[in-house]
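Q: what sequence does this backbone want?
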């Protein structure tokens, strides 16, 4: 159980991880993982700069998320989980970390395409609620430019800066949803502000929309995960990019996890993260 208005849990993701042992040649899985990392990082700009603004006049593609407009190229999504360290900058945690009660974390998410970001929490795999966009953050807006990092929750929010773990042991499902078009019938912006009201009510998807999201999470994709940067602090470039709506440069710190479908013609990409705390 998580403190605050939304529930959250800590993270483990079953991913392909590339290791080199001695002089043994890399396996095909290791090659694919490294290619995925290189493809994603290689799509970053050389230097950091202002992120593109949200387009105007966009319309939802259709009733079902899987029918989003075809993408011109594949979609990649990277994420890192940061843990709160009182009196210091947040530090990265390794994929597979099990958290303790009272610890607090936030996600840093980055995509290689312009589009719209949604994050859902399904407690014990059911009863999903949307925790991003949040009516309290940027008036419910959820557009992200390619390689513009998004903090969830945001360090800029005066009251909701961390997900804090409370209660007994639990495993939760976090669905990070990226779409090149707005998802139909999902309230964002002013519509989300109106829905949330003064009590900041969390929006819940209907069964049909949720089935599509879960199905998309099961689509095969290439994965890369790194343990090497665990316990390192959030960098100055990452902090500046999140605070000033800028994109990360090719030399910026890499996400702890990258998942991608480089051959996909779909405009929808869903990553499921299993999060655990004791």
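A:
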């Amino acid at each position: 159980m998580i403190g605050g208005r939304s529930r959250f849990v800590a993270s483990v993701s079953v991913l392909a991880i590339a290791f080199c042992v001695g002089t043994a040649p890399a396996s095909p899985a290791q090659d694919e993982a490294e290619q995925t990392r290189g493809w994603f990082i290689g799509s970053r700009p050389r230097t950091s700069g202002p992120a593109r603004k949200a387009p105007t006049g966009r319309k939802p593609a259709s009733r079902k998320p899987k029918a989003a407009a075809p993408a011109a190229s594949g979609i990649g999504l990277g994420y890192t989980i940061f843990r709160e360290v009182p009196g210091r900058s947040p530090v990265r945690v390794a994929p597979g970390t099990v958290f303790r009660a009272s610890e607090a974390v936030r996600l840093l998410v980055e995509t290689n395409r312009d589009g719209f970001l949604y994050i859902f929490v399904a407690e014990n795999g059911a009863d999903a609620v949307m925790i991003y966009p949040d009516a309290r953050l940027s008036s419910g807006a959820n557009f992200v430019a390619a390689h513009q990092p998004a903090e969830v929750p945001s360090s800029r929010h005066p009251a909701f800066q961390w997900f804090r773990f409370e209660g007994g042991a639990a495993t939760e499902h976090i669905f990070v949803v990226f779409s090149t078009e707005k998802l139909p019938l999902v309230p964002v912006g002013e519509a989300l502000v109106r829905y949330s009201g003064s009590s900041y009510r969390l929006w819940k998807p209907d069964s049909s929309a949720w089935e599509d999201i879960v199905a998309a999470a099961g689509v095969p994709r290439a994965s890369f995960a790194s343990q090497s940067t665990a316990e390192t602090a959030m960098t100055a470039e990452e902090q500046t990019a999140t605070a000033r709506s800028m994109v990360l440069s090719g030399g910026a710190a890499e996400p702890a996890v990258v998942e991608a479908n480089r051959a996909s013609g779909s405009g929808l990409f869903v990553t499921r993260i299993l999060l655990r705390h004791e």
